[in-house]
Amino acid sequence: MTRTATAKRKRAEREALKAERANKKPKTDDITKHAEKKLFVEKSTGPDRIREAKLYELLGSEDFETRVLAAEAVISSLFDGDGVPEPVLERHLDWRLFRGLASGRAASRLGYSLVIAEVLRQLFGDNALSRSKYPGLTLDKVLEILQQRTRPTGNMTGQEERDFYFGQLFGLECFARAGILRGNEAMWRTILSLLFKLADKKVWLRPQCGWVVTEALPELGLDLTLTTLDIVRAEKWTKSPEGVAISLAALNAYPEGRKTIGNPLDARVLPSLPVILKESTDPDASGEEETSTKGKNNKKKKKQPNWSHQLHFVWDILLKHILSKGEASLEEFTVFWRRCVDDNLFTKTATDGQKLRGFLVFQKTLTELVGQASDQCPLESFLPVIFSKNLMACLMNQAAHEDRYLHRAARKTLSHVEQAALIDQDVATPILENLITGNGVFSFDVRTGTKTVENIVQRVKPEAGEDTVGVLSAPAMKTCTTGKDLDKVKLDLRVYVEYLFKLANAAPEAALKELTALAYAPPVWVPSNAADFVKELSRNRLQSTFANFSRKNEDSTHLCTAIENISPEYIPMDAKLKKAVGDARRKLKSLMHEASQEPNEAGSGEGNTARGLSLLYTMAIFQIYNAEPDAFQLLGDLEECHSRLRKDQEGAAEFLVEILLSMVSQDSILLRQISQQVFGSFAGRISAAALELLLDVLSADENSKGRQALFNIESDDVDPEDIEEDSDEDDDDDVEEVQLDSDVEIDSDVEFVTLNGAEAADPDSGDASPDSESEPDEEGEDADEDEDEEEGEKESSEEAKNLEAIDDALGKILGSHRLDKDKDAASSDSDADMTDSEMLALDDKLAAVFQQRIKHSPSKKKERKAAKESVVNFKRRVLALLETYIRAEAGNPAALAVLLPLLRLMRTTTVKSLADRAFEVVKEYQKRLRKARQEANKEKGGGLLRPAGVGVGVVVVDPEKTLRLLRDVHAEAEAGEMVDHAKAAAAASLIVASTLYLYVADGPSRAAVEAEFVKLERKPEDGAKKKKKGKKAKKRKNQGDEVDMYMDWKQWRDNYESTREGKGS
C-alpha cells in the first residue's frame, strides 16, 4: 500500500469518527467549557490546541444551537479585544475555515459558513480591518486561499470532487451573505466571475450558482443589479431558467426599475419562456439553430441534467411573483399555466423527465394556492386552471397502470391532493369538483384505480355537505338527461350512490337526505328505465350506512332522524298499513325526544329504554318501507313489547329477547347491529329467564338435530339417518371446521321458534357490506351475503335445467312426454314389439340418465354442512349479545349464569373459532368485573369489600346457588382436555369464588369455598399419575403449561387479605 493510499484511509477513518461524534448532541457543559472568552494563540499546544480542535468539531454539529454557540465562540476567539495577529487569522482561514468547507462531515459547511461570513464582514465591511489591522488579507489573497483549498486535484473519487466544488460554492456564497457587496462593484464582478466559472464545471452546479446570484441581488442596489443583468446577458444566461430567476428576483427587489430590468412574463417574451423552462435546449444558442454535424456553425451542446425529484428554484420565484397579486393575476396565471405547464410539460412529445417536472410544479402550485387561499386569492378561480386538460389526462393514465414509468410520481401527486384536502377542509369540495368535472372524470377512482375521491369526500366539513351533494350530483344529472346509453347512465348512478355512501361519514345529514330521496322518490332527472335500479341500489347502500351508524350510540341518532324524514307518501301502502306506520312514526318521535332528555349511560335509565325502543321502531318502519316480509308482524310485536315495558309486566324482558333473537337470525348486518345496540340499552332490565333464552342456544347440537331444535322445521323434513350421520360426524376429529371468515347465513326457509309460539320474521334479501370495521362475530358475513344469494339462485336455476334435461332425455328414450305437454306432443308408437336386445339397450340408456340425475342431485354432505353452519352462525351472534350484556352488567351476580354454558360450548363445539370466541367472552367478563369492582371501591369507599347486609347498594348473592355453580365449573374443568378450556375454567372459577367470598360474609360459605379449592390442590404423587393419563395429559402438555386453579385462588385470596389489612390499619 502506498503512502498516499494509507493517508487517505486514515483520513477517511478520522472523518467517519468525527461524523459519528457530531451526530450526538453535545452536552451544554461541554460547549460552555470550551467557549471561554480567550483569543487563539499563534502556536497552540496542550490545552489551547485541544480547545481549538473541540470548537471546530462543535462547529460541524448537526444541532443548530450547538453550531451557533460554537460559531460565536470562534468569532470571539478571533476578534475580541484587539483581535488575534494576522498570521493567526490567516492560519485559521487557510487551514481551518476554508479547508473545512470541503469536508462532507455532518453539517460542517453550514457551521463554517457562519464564521467565514462574519470574518469577511470584519475584513471588508464597515470595520475594514483588511486595511487597518490585516493589510496582508486582501480580497485577492482571501479568494486565492478559497480557491486553493477548494480546488479538486489529483486522483479523487466522485464524492470527494463534489465536496470540493460545494465547498467553493459555499465560500463564494459567504461573500453574498456577509453584506459587503453594496457599492463594491469590483468585488462583486470578481465573485460573479468565479460563480460563472464554477457553473460551467458541472451541470448540477448551475442552478446552485444561479441561486447565489438571486440571493445577493437585494444587497447590491439598483445600479449594481443592472450591471449584474448585463453580465448575465454577456454570459448568455438570459435564455436559461437561472437567467429568468435572476430577472424576476431583480424585478421583485427593485420594482422601480421595471422598464430597465424587463419582465420575463411580458407578452412579447412569453413565447420563449416555455422552451426555457423545459430545460431541453442549449441556453447558449440564443435562438440560433443548432447543427448536429461539425462545420461552420458547429457548437458543443451542453450536457443537460438528468431528471430529478428536486424542482428548479425558478418555479418558486415564478409562482410567488404571479400569485402575490391575488385574483388580479388570474388572467396572467392562466396564460402562464397553459403555455409553460400544460402545453409544454404534458404534451405528447414531452419526455418522462419533463412530465415528472410538471407533476412537481403542480404539487408546489397546489401548496401555494392552499396556503394563500383568501378573498384576494380565491381557490374557486385558480383551481380549474391548474387541473388542466393535458395534466389530468397524463395524471390519470400514469396512475392507472403500474408499468408506467411515472406511476409512483402520479400516485404521489394524488396523495398530495388528498393531503391538501386534509390540511384545509375548506378546499375539499373545490378540489373534488375539479377531479370529477371539467377535465376530470366522474368515475375518477375507477379510472385511476385509487381511492382519491373517496378519501376526499370523507374529509368534507359537515356544513359543506349540501354543496358537496350538489357537486356530486351535477355529472350524474348531466349523464341522465343527455346520455342515451343506458349502461353508462347506470354506471354513473352507481358511482353517484357510492359517493353519497362515503359522504355519509363526513356529512351524514346531507348524504342521508339525498340517499333516502333516491331510494324512495328518485328525482325527475333519473330516467324511468333506471328508476328501479337506483332505488334498489340506494336502499342497499342506505342499509349499509345505517349499519355503520348503529355501531355507536351517538351515531344511531342519524339513523332515527333519516327514517323519520322519509315521507310515507312516497311508499305505496294500504289504509291499514298506512295507519300503523303513522302511529309508529308518532311513537318514534316521542321516544327520540325522551331519549334526548336522559343521559346516555349503558345498562339502565329511562333514556336507554327509550333509545332502544326508538331503534326497534326505526327498523320496523324501515322494513315496511322496503316491503320486507313479516315487517308488519314485527311492528305488532313491538307494540306489545312497548306496552309490557311501560307497565313493567312480568315477561317483558323475555318478550324483548324473543324479538332480538328473531332479528339476529336474519341475514341482515343492520338488524344484527341494531339488536346488539338495543340489547345493550336493556341490559339492566334483562331477567334470569330472558338470559336463559340466550344460553339455551349455546347448548344446541351443531347438526341437523340441533337446527331442528332451534328452528321451526317439521319433523317430516328431517331424515333420521341424517341425524345419526351428523352425530357420527361430530365425534370424528377430522370434521371440517366452519371458518369465521365465511359466516354463511342461516337458511331462509326456516323460522325461529319464539316462546309464545309466534314465528319470527323471515330473513330479508341481504345487506351490502359496510366498509368500516365490524365486531368479531360479523367478520366476513357482509362480504359473503351477496355471494350466498347468487349461489342460491344459480343452484335453483341449475336444478331446474337439470330436471328439464332429464325429462327431455327420458322422452327421447321412451318416446313419451310429460302430461302438461299433451297438446304439443305427437302420437307415439307402442313399444310392445321391442326385442330383448332392444330392451337391454333401453335399460342401459335409462341407467345412464338416472346416474346423471344422481350426480346432479344435492349431496347429503352439503345439506349437513349447511345445517351445521346455520347453528354455528346463530351461536356466534348469540355470543355477541352475551358479550354486550357482560360489558354492561359485569358487576351483576346474575351474569354468573353465562359462565358454565360458555365453558360447555368450548368443550363440545367442533369449530375452533367458536370456542375461541367463547373464550374471549370469558376473558372480557374477567376484565370488566375487575374494572367494575375498582370503580365501586372508589365511589363507595370500599363498598365491594363490605359483607352482605352492611351499607347501601350492596349486591345480593345466593350462597347455595353460587357454591353449586362453583362445583359445576370445577367439574367442567376436569371434563375438558384443551389448555384454552382449562384457562377459561380457571378464570370462571375465580370469578365465581371471588364473588362468593366478597359478598357473603358468613364463615360456612367461605369455608366451603376453601374446601372446594383444597380438592384441586396438587400433591407430589399427582405428578406420576398424570404421566399415565394418556391422551388428555398429552394434549395439555403439547399446548403449554397446565393451569393450577388452586394456586390462582390462593394468590387472589392472599392479595385480598393483605389489601383488607392495609385498609384496616
UniProtKB/TrEMBL annotation:
Xref: InterPro entries: DNA_pol_V/MYBBP1A (IPR007015)
Cell compartment(s), UniProt: Nucleus
GO biological process: regulation of DNA-templated transcription
Keywords: Coiled coil, Nucleus
UniProt-annotated stretches for the region Disordered: 1-33, 279-305, 709-803, 1018-1046
Predominant location category: nucleus
Biased composition (Acidic residues): 714-750, 761-793
Coiled-coil blocks: 915-942
UniProt biased composition (Basic residues): 1-11, 1025-1037
Keyword Coiled coil (UniProt): yes
GO terms of molecular function: rDNA binding
GO CC annotation: nucleolus
Biased composition (Basic and acidic residues): 12-33, 794-803
Protein name: DNA polymerase V
Organism (species): Sodiomyces alkalinus (strain CBS 110278 / VKM F-3762 / F11) (Alkaliphilic filamentous fungus)
